[in-house]
């Protein structure tokens, strides 16, 4: 099967390696692989026709100062004796070949040569907009919106709401840290768990709407606005203000002097229920929402 040159309009890298079919056809056949490029962080290696050259990079030094060891695998399969000093021409040949292969596969730029300023430009941009639908499978923590130490807003259009409707709209985290937005006793409720099980610093914020959730269709929401812009290496508190809203009207408001600034619990995010341990104390998981969720929108400010 030929690999595609493009996928969804995006040019694809060529497929490296060789087929293993010949080994299945003849168990006694010799290896048809003549070369192998290797790189892990700033450690480098190259194999060519029985010769192997390798570096063991020391952090904090420049790659150009690395020592290249050389081994002849035909006579020293365990690579016990470095013979780089005895074969400088072969070593230079393999070093040049490593560079050619590195440029071919886009791996020629070494980490130790990148400045801190350049590293900041390589950091992926914050994803600020998420749309999740009812029935969405559990999102692992690394795939969830990064709301920590950022202003953010949750908007949930719902329908078919009756006086008996209740349940979780969205839950992120668990009983150690996280937030959950749900409907109970005809009220919209937000519980934000800031390390509530750590008695010395923890707190569980609870915000309850002053008005009932309307029957039928409505748009329910929660907004957190960061009030202190914290930059640099100083201690971050995540201080801000939380607001509940129904159809755009603010129906509850609360100061939140401490919120999570680095990460939420490892447990991830659910839509329409809280599959695992409950984030808050006002319900028993999974507490699935009994009406209909159109979608859950989460927008994060890059502040």
Major β-sheet, in short? 7 strands, antiparallel
As for the CATH topology of the largest domain, it is Jelly Rolls
Radius of gyration: 28 Å
Classify the secondary structure makeup into a structural class: mainly beta
Q: Helix-strand pattern, N to C?
A: EEHEEEEHHEEEEEEEEEEEE
The amount of beta strand, in percent, is 35-45%
Describe this structure in words.
The mean pLDDT is 90. With 303 residues, this protein is mainly beta. It has helices at residues 21-25, 88-104, 116-122; strands spanning 6-7, 10-11, 35-40, 43-48, 51-55, 68-72, 129-132, 152-161, 167-173, 177-184, 187-194, 203-212, 216-226, 240-246, 249-256, 269-271, 292-293, 296-300. The protein is elongated. Helices cover 10% and strands 36% of the residues. The strands form four sheets. Strands 7, 8, 13, 14, 15, 17 and 18 form a seven-stranded antiparallel sheet that branches.
């Amino acid at each position: 099967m030929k690999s595609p040159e493009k996928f969804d309009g995006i040019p694809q890298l060529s497929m490296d390696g060789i087929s293993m079919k010949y080994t299945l056809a003849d168990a006694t056949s010799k290896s048809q692989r003549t070369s192998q490029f290797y790189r892990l962080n700033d450690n480098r290696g190259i194999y060519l026709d029985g010769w192997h050259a390798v570096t063991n990079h020391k952090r904090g030094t420049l790659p150009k100062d690395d020592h290249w060891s050389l081994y002849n695998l035909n006579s020293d399969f365990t690579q016990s004796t470095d013979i780089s000093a005895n074969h400088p021409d072969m070593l230079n040949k393999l070093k040049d070949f490593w560079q050619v292969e590195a440029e071919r596969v886009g791996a020629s730029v070494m980490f130790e040569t990148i400045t801190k300023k350049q590293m900041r430009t390589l950091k992926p941009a914050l994803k600020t907009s998420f749309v999740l639908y009812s029935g969405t499978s559990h999102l692992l923590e690394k795939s969830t919106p990064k709301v920590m130490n950022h202003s953010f807003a949750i908007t949930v259009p719902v329908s078919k709401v009756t006086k008996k409707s209740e349940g979780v709209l969205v839950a992120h985290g668990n009983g150690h840290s996280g937030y959950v937005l749900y409907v109970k006793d005809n009220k919209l409720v937000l519980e934000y768990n800031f390390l509530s099980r750590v008695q010395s610093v923890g707190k569980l914020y609870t915000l309850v709407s002053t008005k009932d959730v309307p029957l039928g269709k409505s748009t329910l929401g929660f907004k957190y606005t960061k009030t202190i812009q914290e930059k640099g290496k100083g201690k971050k508190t995540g201080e801000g203000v939380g607001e509940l809203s129904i159809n755009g009207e603010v129906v509850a408001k609360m100061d939140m002097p401490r919120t999570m600034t680095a990460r939420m619990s490892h447990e991830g995010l659910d839509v329409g229920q809280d599959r695992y341990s409950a984030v808050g104390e006002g319900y028993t998981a999974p507490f699935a929402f009994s009406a209909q969720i159109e979608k859950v929108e989460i927008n994060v400010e890059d502040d």
